[in-house]
Amino acid sequence: MRIGDLARETGVSRRLLRYYEEQDLLRPARSDNGYREYTEADVAMVRHIRAMLAAGLSTAVIGKVVHCVRDKDELRVPSGCPTFIGELRRERTRITETISQLETSRRLLDAVLDTAPRNGEETTHETAL
Length: 129
Description:
The protein is mainly α. Helices cover about 60% and strands about 5% of the residues.
């Protein structure tokens, strides 16, 4: 299948598919005329890439572990790929730290908002927001 077919099949733009290729996340075959040729395995790979991005992994991290993803239907940890687990643990720690920082920020905002005027009384600063 060609890039337009892959875009339709996965809901991912052609531009983004080319970006995935630039990042070495996708490795389509090339026909004699230079056109990219994708397979059903590439459809599954794009779905895996999208799932990993949604989980908060960067394309740099995905690039380190994408070769470990072989299952067509779901993400699995293959036995011969220990870097996959290490990278995922590091990313989970990073995400947990980010969540903690965001929760601290939310508590600070809540404390400020608790001191704000009530009953629709707005200050000049709030109106500007």
